[in-house]
Amino acid sequence: MKKHLIAISLSLCAYWGLAQSSTQCSRALSQAELAFEQGRLSDIINTYNAENSGFTRCLENGVFTIEERIRAYKLLTKAYLFQDDEAKAEEMFVELLKVDKEHQLSPEDPAELYLLKDKFKTEPILRVAVRGGVNKSLPSVMQSFNTFQSGGKRYNQDGNNTGPGIGFWVEALAERHLSKGIEVAAGLQYRIASYEIEGDLIETDLNYVAKNTSNMLRVPLLVRYSLNYSKKDDNGNRIKMLPYVFIGGSFDMMLQAKYIDASRTGGTAYTLPDESADLKSNDQVANTNVSILAGLGVRLRVGRSEVDFLSFELRYDNSLFNYINPDNRWANNDVNFGIGHVEDDLTLNVVSFSVGYTRSLYIPRKRKQYR
User: Which DSSP string corresponds to 310-347?
Assistant: First the structure.
């Protein structure tokens, strides 16, 4: 019990000491701001440069809150500006941008500070986005094929034997803003897509189910246009909601394709052997494909500085070429005659919904003409 009391007492003392230190630092910042208002610029600079200065210790030792650090570096920037020490003013402004990545000046700020900011690039050098979601396959039949005994086929009918063809995907993109809300992005996507087929055999009570699933590594490239990218509201704050549209394309590489459920029922039951279920190994699907894509979404500014984004996106991918390898369409007797199914020529199109997060990366730097 005594040990617990000692620990609690020490914790309370530490908390009290931190609170006292924070209070003293807030007071030191307020005094520096008062000195600026009174025109005592030299006092501010001398205090900042003095050894064991309380103001400097508060700034460099992390006692100041984030908002106080912004106020302090902005104050020092203005003080050096009005003392005609442009080099030190730039140094302090860079420190300010490290704390507040896209610092927004207020109408009360002096024109000299606006001119200084114009010399710097405050936009991100790159954004990194990760997103994931669900997809629904929409097979589009180019030409239908059947065995001598098979009849009609039904794709992705959510009934007793088949489902809607739901899959999943994840994606990582590197994004770059070009101008006026126009951005380009490229990255990698891993997609699992599936479609389910139910078919009938002619003049029998037999039917079959075949669930085709594919794993693809995709390389998407896209161009995006965001509304409200640089707009501000009536209070001078950046608009937080950015609707956007995009178009692009993707190079698709097949990693795996197989039947995860293929069987015949209604009479003599038959289940496809594992060795016949692997479409990729049996060269029955195309190894590569190309897709065009388009979509829309909305990004919400998040975080204290509101420079990162939470996104919600709806996308449509339209495959351009045959998903099936037509040269080996009839090469798998277990599929063609065991369950009575043969794949149609089709494009595997996909509609998807995703949620993502975008991180902005910054390196504060002067524009070339001012270096």
Answer: EEEEEEEEEE-S-SB-GGGTT--HIIIIII---PPEEE
Whether residue 285 is predicted with pLDDT greater than 90 in this model: the reply is yes
Give the residue, 150 or 24, on which the prediction is more confident: 24
Provide the token pair at 321.
């070429």
Instruction: Provide Rg for the chain, Cα atoms.
Output: 32
Q: In the chain, where are the structural domains located?
A: 13-122, 126-361
CATH code matching the domain that covers 13-122, chosen among 1.10.10, 1.25.40, 1.10.1660, 3.10.620: 1.25.40
Instruction: Tell me how long the chain is.
Output: 371
pLDDT for 53 equals 75
Q: How many Cα atoms within 13 Å fall on the side-chain side of residue 342? A: 21
DSSP conformation class of 281: T
Closest CA to 207 of 148, 264, 277: 264
Question: Rounded to an integer, what distance in angstroms lies between the CA atom of residue 53 and that of residue 57?
Answer: 6
Pairing label, strands 308-319, 288-302: antiparallel
Q: What is the DSSP letter of 303?
A: S
